[in-house]
Structure formats: structure tokens, C-alpha cells
Amino acid sequence: MKDTDREAVATAVQRVAGMLQRPDQLDKVEQYRRREARKKASVEARLKAAIQSQLDGVRTGLSQLHNALNDVKDVQQSLADVSKDWRQSINTIESLKDVKDAVVRHSQLAAAVENLKNIFSVPEIVRETQDLIEQGALLQAHRKLMDLECSRDGLMYEQYRMDSGNTRDMTLIHSYFGSTQGLSDELAKQLWMVLQRSLVTVRRDPTLLVSVVRIIEREEKIDRRILDRKKQTSFVPPGRPKNWKEKMFAILDRTVTTRIEGTQADTRESDKMWLVRHLEIIRKYVLDDLIVAKNLMVQCFPPHYEIFRNLLSMYHQALSTRMQELAAEDLEANEIVSLLTWVLNTYTSAEMMGNAELAPEVDVSILEPLLSPDVVSELLNTYMSILTSNIIAWLRKALETDKKDWIRETEPEADQDGSYQTTLPAIVFQMFEQNLQVAAQISEDLKTKVLVLCLQQMNSFLSRYKEEAQSYKEEHLRDRQHPHCYVQYMIAIINNCQTFKESIVSLKRKYLRSETEEGVSLTQPSMDGILDTIAQEGCSSLLEEVFLDLEQHLSELMTRKWLLGSNAVDIICVTVEDYFSDFAKIKKPYKKGFGEDADGHCDTIAAIAEVIKLTDPSLLYLEVSTLVSKYPDIRDEHIGALLAMRGDTSRDLKQTIIETLEQGPTQANPNYVPIFKEIMVPSLNVAKLLK
User: Fold this and answer.
1) Looking at the whole model, is its pTM more than 0.90?
2) Within 557-597, where are the H helices?
3) How many CB atoms lie within 10 A of CB 223?
4) How far is CA 471 from CA 467, 531, 533, 672, in A?
5) With the C-alpha atoms ordered 464, 468, 469, 474, is the resulting torsion angle positive or negative?
6) CA trace torsion 432, 438, 439, 444 (10° rounding)
7) Residues 6+ apart with CB under 8 A from 271
8) Which among 31, 165, 436, 509 is least surrounded, fewest beta carbons within 10 Å?
9) In the chain, pLDDT over 70 holds for what percent of residues?
10) What are the counts of helices (DSSP H) followed by strands (DSSP E) for the chain?
11) What angle do CA 486, 492, 498 make, to 5 degrees?
């Protein structure tokens, strides 16, 4: 208490110090004293009231405890009396067994009397229910069916509760209500028929569909109630649970599957486009059905049925199954493309599941693929295998067709620049374009694979093209009168090489866009070398053709016959002019040697002419050395033939000039293009000129 008193005094001192901080506050000391006295009195009054209340509560509690003790003693005495009476009445209870049995019989009779009305009216209710089912009044029919089942189940439950081992009475009740199960099955058939046509019914008579759903909901509630009672009594009426909701979804699932499978109206034998038509019908039906389900059917079912989500899942699964069946068939290449395009692109596009009318309930980003990656990969491998065979066959056929044009009696077509050409490059690359466009519809990866395949087959094709061009030349050399337009078609073959090169570049530029894809293309064999070889061999064969025609007339030059008078030069000029009018229709860069460098060659002819027309033999060495310095690739046989043409050079002088020139160094111009290395000097002609 001393500590409490000290704490109170300290608190009081602080309060007084807070009140008397200024001199003018001393005048209010009496006022402060009265206020504090009032507060003290108020606190003391409240404290007394609280203590008094506590004392009253304790007094009341003690009184109640005393009363409770007396009550407990009274109950204890009563229980003792009851126990005494019960022991004395055991024998009396044993003698009341007959009364108990009478009570049970009375209960049975009371239940029977209560159900007599329903029992006697069962045949009539059965007939009425059957009529209502036939009339399509499904709700009313179900109500009467429920009454029948309720009477039957009630009687059977009472029998089970009183004597569960009495199977004879149970069988009797079940047989009396035997028509009830038949009515239930008949009603179920009507419900399933409506559900099978639900997508049509919901548009024509949605009330009928709603009635079906209400009946199913009633049966679901009855099933749940009976299963709950089973936990307590172990009694389950016959035919329960019906599980009509589960059966409803099974019926809808079978209906969806049948609808998908029934869309195939044609076969490959009757229509080459059977798969395209089949897939298009599926697309249209599924889209229309889901739109109807989203906008109309959801209004006929309780929300917890999630009817649209379930229907979407059913359609997806049915489509997946159907696509797998189609993938397992022996499909052709175009059919594989149609299937994969539909599965990988069309299905999730705005034309089907991505349609705005299905949003937001349908999210294509979470839809499972219709075909597994393994099946897709297998289909792609099959497609690539078939496509490889087809491309090889198409290229072979295109080349055979082009070869038939080579022996025609009419000249080949010319392009806008007047250059000869055949349709082979256009046919080949049109085929490539078509296959690449188709592959691009499926995936970028397949497009790249098809392009690589096309380039690989093109490489092999060009090797065959080279062989056929060589065979064409050899066949012509055996009989130069045929084919009639050999030169023109050989020019077309040469021009085709340039067209092929341009088309290959264009194809790569169009279908290889990324750096990664460019890397793929670089691994393919280069075809430029083969094309250049074909063109060069073609050009050589054309030059050979010219010289074969000129051989007889060239052999007359520098001979006595030529000196006495000959038109060989005129024939040579006319022949060359005629050939080069055709050679002008060769595309760049293959014109080189056929006219583009003619000016440079004319300078060479002028330089040779200076040696021939030189009148002073003493200057012959100087003139020849000038020629050699200008054309360092000139060979000894060229100089020998040139000196022999003059006719005034002895063998010794010729040999001296050649030996002297061989000893002198020759420095070639870096920009010099060799000319004489390609000019052959037959020894026969040299000998002829020396005569």
C-alpha cells in the first residue's frame, strides 16, 4: 500500500504542477480544489456501485449452487426409484411380446390401407402414362411414372424395413408393378430421341428440349435422395440409380460422333476431291452446330451442366478420332496436304474454331492438337516420299515432252526479246511453285523441306538434261539433215540454261527469307556449273555445225582453184551471216563468241592481214614479232601457217623467225583475253599451204 500511496502522491503532484504553471493560475486554486473533489466523489461512488454489484452476483451464484445441489439429490433419488421399478417390471415386459407383434401387423395393415388407392389404380395409371408418352406429353407422363415408382418403392421399403429376408413378398410387389420399368425405358427412349436431334429441336421447339432436361433433373434428384437413404437403410429400389444425366451426355457424344462420320458423301473412286469435300462439310457442320449450342442450347440447360463446354469437348474428340482414321488410310500426296492443312490451319482459323461468334468461350490457344506430333510427322514423311517420286516422274515426263519438240519441223517459240526457248523451264518451275505454295499452307518447315527437295531433284534433272542434249547432238551428226531445226532448238536449249539459272535464283529469293533458311539452301549442290557446261557444250556444237558446213569451202581457200576463181568466200560469208542471224537469238551471257566481241576479233584479222600483205620480206621478222607481242598466246603452228600463206617464205626463214621469237621474252597484258589458244591448225592444211 505504501508504494501505491507514493505513486498516487507523485501523480497528484504532477497534476498540481501542471495546473499551477503561471502566477495567474493561483487565483483558481479553489476552483481546481472543488473540481477535483467532485471527481473524487464520482469515482468513489462508481467504485462502491461496482463492489456492490459484484457482491450481489456472488450472493446469487451461491444461492443457485445450493438449489442445483438439491435438484441433483432429487434426480439421484428419482433414478434410484426408476431403476427399482425397471427391475421389478422385466417379467411384465416379457409378457408383452404378443402386443409387439400385433403392433407390427397393425403398422403393415396401416401402410397397406394407405396405399390401397394407389395399388388399385396402378393399371389405370400405367395406361394413362403410356398414352401420354405416345402423345409426346413427356412432363405429364413422367409425373405419373414418378407416382407409380413412389408407390412401388414405398411398399418395397416398408416390406424391407419390417422383414428384409422375405423375398417372396418383395417379388410379389415387384411383379405387380412390373410395367413401371417398361414405362421408364419407353420414356427414356423418347428422351434420347429428342437429345439426338437436340440441335434441330432447339431451333424449332426449345420447350421440348427444356422438358427433357427437367425430367432428367428430376431423376437426378431422386437418385441422390435414394443413395443418401441407402447409407442409412441399405435399401435401393429396382432400377436405381438411373443415371440419366450421365446417359444424356453419352447420347450426345454418340450423336456428335455419328454426325462427324456421316459427312463423307463420296469416295476416291467417285470423286478425286472427296477428302476436300468431306473436310469442308465437317467444317461447316461443326461451326454451325457450335454456334447454335452457344446461342440457344445453353439457355435450355442448367448452368452446372456446362453444356457448351461439354459439347465442344465432344466435337473436338470426335474430330480427333476422325482425323486419325483418315490419317491411317492410304492417302495420296494431295490428300495428305488437304488433311494437314485442315488440321493444322483451318481448324483453328476464323473459318472454324477461331470464328468470332464462338468467342470468348472457345480459345484456340488452349485447344489440344487434333493429331499427335508423331502422326503429323509420319504424314509429312509419307508426303515427302510420295512427292519425291512424283517430282521425279513429272521431271522425266517434262523432259520427254520437250525432247519431242526438238525434232519438230517448226522453229521454237521466242520470248519478248526474240530469244528462242522451249516451255520446259516454265513447266518445271510452275510445278515447283505449285508444290511450294501447297507446302507453305501447311508450315514454314515443310516449305523449306520441299524447296530443298526441288533443288536436289533439279540438280539430278539437269544431269539428265545434259545427257539428252549431248544425245541430241550426236543423233544430228549421224544425219545432219535431221532434225530440220537443230540449230534453233540447240539455241533454245542454251537459252533454257539461263532461264533455269534465273528461275532458281527467283525461287530461292521468294521462298527462303531468313538467314537460317539461306544456310539450308547453301548446302545444296550448285547447279550453275552444270548449266554453264550444258550451254558451253551447246555453243561448241553450234560452232561445230558452222565449220562442218564451211569445211569444204574453207578447204578451197589458198589453193590453185581459189586463185583461178572461186565463190568460196561469198559462200562462207553468206553461211556465217545466216548462222549468226540465228546466234543473235542466244541470251546473254552465252552470246560471248557469237557477236559481242566481234570488234576485238576484227582488230586481230587486221593485224594478221598486215603480215600477209607485207611486200618487203626483210621486214617480215619485225611484223611477226609485233603480232606475237600483241597476242602472246599465238603458237608456232599459227606462225608457220601464216608464213606459209604468203607463199614467199622459205623453210629456213620460217624456222629462223620461229626460233628467234621463242628466245625473246613475252609479257602478256593483264587484261588480255586469249584468242589463238582456241584456234586449231590441222597439219593437213599447213602441208597444203606449203605446196
Assistant:
1) no
2) 560-564, 568-583
3) 17
4) 6, 16, 15, 36
5) positive
6) 110
7) 277
8) 165
9) 90
10) 26, 2
11) 150
